[in-house]
Amino acid sequence: MRGAFVVAVLATFHGGSAAGACAWGDISRKNAGQLVPEFFSYADAVVHGRVLSRRVEQYGIETAQIAVLRSFKGAASSLRVRGNPGNCGYQFTVGEERIYFIKEGVVSSAGAKRVSPWLLAALNGARHAK
User: Fold this and answer.
1) What is the CA radius of gyration of the chain?
2) Is 73 helix (H, G, I), strand (E, B) or coil?
């Protein structure tokens, strides 16, 4: 739903030794056929959105307001998403446009992907396969 808003509450990662724990494979054009269906199935919601604003609150919790440009899975009108500093949370940048994979109210650093034609095509395929 174009113009809908998502409120996302995420943790800002504050360094430390957990950086290695946040390493994972990334979706690429070559492995999209395998990984997009897995990411899609795992997520409660998948949206293409643009970050309108963000702020850091107490304990490093980050709140971002996102305009949902397109929803591939789940509710697109209002979502609350949270994480914690040790949970590989994604740090938003105002103005960025990404595909967000949301699981149990969390967007991890692996769950925010650059928008590309091949990723959009793979998401359309995953959505229609359901």
Assistant:
1) 14
2) strand
User: Domain coordinates of the chain in residue numbers?
Assistant: 4-129
Contact 3, 67 (CB under 8 A): yes
4-129 has which fold?
Answer: OB fold (Dihydrolipoamide Acetyltransferase, E2P) (2.40.50)
Q: Are strands 45-56 and 97-102 parallel, antiparallel or unpaired?
A: antiparallel
Q: How many residues does the chain have?
A: 130
What is the pTM for the complete model shown?
0.78
Pick from 107, 110, 5: which is nearest to 50 by CA? 5
Write the pLDDT tens digit of every residue in 13-40: 333 333 445 656 688 999 998 999 999 9
CB of 1 within 8 A of CB of 71? yes
Burial 92-106, CB ≥16 within 10 A → b, else e: beeeeebbbbbeeeb
